[in-house]
Amino acid sequence: MFKSRFVSRRALIADAGKLTLSAGAIALLAGRDAMATSHTGDAGKDAGILNVALGLEHEAIAAYQIGAESGLLTKDVLPVAVLFQSHHKAHRDALAATVKKLGGTPVEELAKDEYVKSKKLNVAAVKSQADVLALAQRLELGAVNAYLGVIPVFGDHELAKVAGRLAVDETMHYTALTQALGGKLPESALSFGG
Questions:
Q1: Helical segments of 128-188, H only
Q2: How does pLDDT run across 104-147, given as a tens digit for each residue?
């Protein structure tokens, strides 16, 4: 069961080491319902780890929403923030659907006010477009590293593939945000997931 209201990306990695998803959960997450019925596993544990990831996706969606509604984003930047938010909504929908198929209850998003008051997001410190982008950049980098961190613990290649695809989305977001902030891209190879 999802106990914490706010979870760090680091917690996803730590929990993944304890909770590996069954082949059935992997098949459901990959959209292969028929394959899932032939596999057995601990659906409760599978739903638990997926709910941690789902909670983090809710947080990212809220952060982009707060940024979009802040009035701080220019007309050129706002559509990109909304696009990235739509990617997180797709991640959320896939994770929630899988939790339901496993017989679990997807973790609910918090009220917007709870995200605004979150010390982790520190919305009070957001005063400019650069601040909005820096917040999003920080969350995206955390997501990249979390998804890359859980890939090795999955025994099934399909789940590793799904986590890899999620990490790629997050890396694209991080890279675009870094460029928008005028930051430098990593100069060395193997910069993520370490």
A1: 129-150, 157-180
A2: 899 999 999 999 999 989 999 999 999 999 999 999 998 888 88
Under 8 Å CB-to-CB from 52, ≥6 apart: which residues?
2, 7, 11, 12, 15
Burial class of residue 164, CB neighbours in 10 A (0-12, 13-18, 19+): middle
pTM of the predicted structure, to 2 decimals: 0.77
Cα-trace Rg, the chain: 17
Q: Structure tokens of 142?
A: 């955390």
Domain segments of the chain: what residues? 9-180
Token pair for 169:
């989305």
**Would you say domain 9-180 falls under CATH 1.10.150.20?**
no
Q: Dihedrals φ, ψ of 170, to 5°?
A: -65, -35
Q: Which amino acid is at 19?
A: L
**For residue 94, how many other CB atoms are within 10 A of its CB?**
20
Question: What gap in Å lies between CA 66 and CA 106, rounded to an integer?
Answer: 23
